[in-house]
Amino acid sequence: MDVAIRGDRASCLSMQVGPHAWLFAVARGFGTIDGAAAAPATLGRLRAECERRLRTERFRRALSRSSAAPTALLGVLARVNGELFARSASHEDYVTAGSSITLALVLRSHAYVMHAGGTAAYLAHRGEVRALTADDAFEDAALPLLGRALGTSASLDVAVTSVDVAPGDVMMLLGHRVRGEIDRRALIAHVEAAGPSEHMLVVRFDDDDTAPERAPLARPRATVPHPARRIAYAVAAALLSLLIATAWTR
């Protein structure tokens, strides 16, 4: 499989968690946790908790079985959610920090998608686009409100979806949900119109069952001149669009 990341890499996660298992995630947050922005703090804790548990045979064995893998990952998310809630200065009136998250655990030819908040996941399969997540953000309000998010409650509240993936399929994890009708053109238009603050992770599946190879996308630094930043984002958008387009050519 091929993996491409655009935008804030600290808000995207790609890691192998087993011989035939990979974890992909995007997060978008508000506020800070221990001085760090909520989204990178969430994914940092997610990676650290996975790495800690991967040192145990029980967790590794669970991730190798489709019947046990979702439950094992939900346990990780519950631990991360508890840590975020405890450190977000929450009390009875409000929560100072939280994070939307969409993650996909890919186990061979199957994916388990877990979601809370305003991030999103889509799957392009044989010419059709399927939304794998609902929208937990109420955008009609003066300020967008999250119906669910990590770190806003002591208990974990995420939606779980399972889906089969096949060679040629493309999965997109986005920091913002695509508005309006969902199809190939809408996805590509979203990628091309996205600014520097938008981050996304795209996975293209193929017959190769080896570790994913990260696409060499350059993330511009703050010191890069503005025209160069525009070129870098244009190149990233073109590559992501190409990955999406492959779902209709195979």
Rg over CA atoms, rounded to whole Å, is 18 Å
Class derived from helix and strand content: alpha+beta
Total beta-strand segments: 15
Question: What is the number of helical segments per DSSP (H or I, 4+ residues)?
Answer: 5
Ends distance: 14 Å
Strand order of the largest sheet: 9-8-13-14-1-15
Largest sheet: 6 strands, mixed
And the CATH topology? Answer: Phosphatase 2c, domain 1
Gross CATH architecture: 4-Layer Sandwich
List keywords for this structure.
250 residues; five-stranded antiparallel beta sheet
Walk me through the structure.
- This protein starts with a strand and ends in a 5-residue tail after the last helix.
- With about 250 residues, the protein is of the alpha+beta class.
- Helix content is about 30%, strand content about 30%.
- The strands form 4 sheets. The chain has a 6-stranded mixed beta sheet with strand order 9-8-13-14-1-15, with helices on one face. Strands 2-3-6-7-12 form a 5-stranded antiparallel beta sheet, with helices on one face. Strands 4-5 form a two-stranded antiparallel ribbon.
- It has a single domain (about 1-250), classed as PPM-type phosphatase domain (Phosphatase 2c, domain 1), CATH 3.60.40.10.
- It contains 5 helices and 15 strands.
